[in-house]
Amino acid sequence: MTNTLKDILWLQNLVAEIHVPITMPTPLHCDNQGAITLTHNNKFHLRTKHIDIRYHFIWEAVENDHVLLSYCPMDAMVVDVLTKALLHLKLLRFIEMLGLL
């Protein structure tokens, strides 16, 4: 999520340099509900003491309305068709979702 957020911020800055205002946050889909919850609640807990600066980077981007995090279940991650070997039925469903079939 951190690397994707870096790319989003870079693209937002690029678009801003060509004088096109971005008025709405960019949606960022994640399949980890725990990570999404932590970005909305910045309280310190014993179980979160291991979280490093990347968490604060994401939290700050959400607070500044650069991105809008939303949950996307693993079964709906269409990008998996480009990154993983999939079962035939799942592959066909994703190809159909992409509009290629």
Textual characterization of the structure:
It is a single chain. By secondary structure, the chain is mainly alpha-helical. It has one domain. 49% of the residues lie in helices and 10% in strands. The protein has five helices and two strands; from the N terminus they run αβααβαα. It starts with a helix and ends with a helix. The relative contact order is 0.15. The model has no long low-confidence stretch (mean pLDDT 84).
In short, what is this structure?
The protein has 101 residues and is mainly α. It contains five helices and two strands; from the N terminus they run αβααβαα. 49% of the residues lie in helices and 10% in strands.
Radius of gyration: 17 Å
Order of helices and strands: HEHHEHH
Shape: globular
Q: Would you tell me the structural class of the helices and strands?
A: mainly alpha
Order of strands, main sheet, comes to 1-2
User: How large a portion of the residues is in β-strands, by DSSP E?
Assistant: 5-15%
Average pLDDT taken over every residue: 84
Largest sheet: 2 strands, parallel
Write the layout of secondary structure elements.
Elements: H1 2-17, E1 26-30, H2 33-40, H3 53-63, E2 67-71, H4 80-83, H5 88-97
Parallel strand pairs: 1-2
